[in-house]
Amino acid sequence: xxxxxxxxxxxxxxxxxxxxxxxxxxxxxxxxxxxxxxxxxxxxxxxxxxxxxxxxxxxxxxxxxxxxxxxxxxxxxxxxxxxxxxxxxxxxxxxxxxxxxxxxxxxxxxxxxxxxxxxxxxxxxxxxxxxxxxxxxxxxxxxxxxxxxxxxxxxxxxxxxxxxxxxxxxxxxxxxxxxxxxxxx
Length: 185
Prior knowledge:
alpha/beta, Rossmann fold, four-stranded parallel sheet, 7 helices
């Protein structure tokens, strides 16, 4: 059973593009039954990543020069098994687009906090059941306010070192996602 993961950020040229590229490489290297994509809450499709994003990904051995931003649409939300956003604002946008998707939509950091508390998904447990356990007791009203603990910093407009910090953080977070979903590092 393949798991469809969708990363979401503001413009889909930095954070979600980095997370998808890093996770995609890890999925390929480990031969995992998963596919990953990314999308933007802004309606500005077709934008390439900035030079700093391309540079830090190339430093990880990933050529993202063909990446182009795409807009988060209801059909993308519906087609994903798990949506991981970079900020609570992105989660709220996804919930408005597809109200039934709340149970499978988390900020990346919220998902890992909750998933690490219950442990990795058993190999044959359906993703929907696992996400139900991860989200047990979750209060959607808490997510109405922003919280820096749930955000991956957006390096847009910053110096190269901020992009490097973002890609390094996203690499660790992506490893965590694959660990809790598949039990592999």
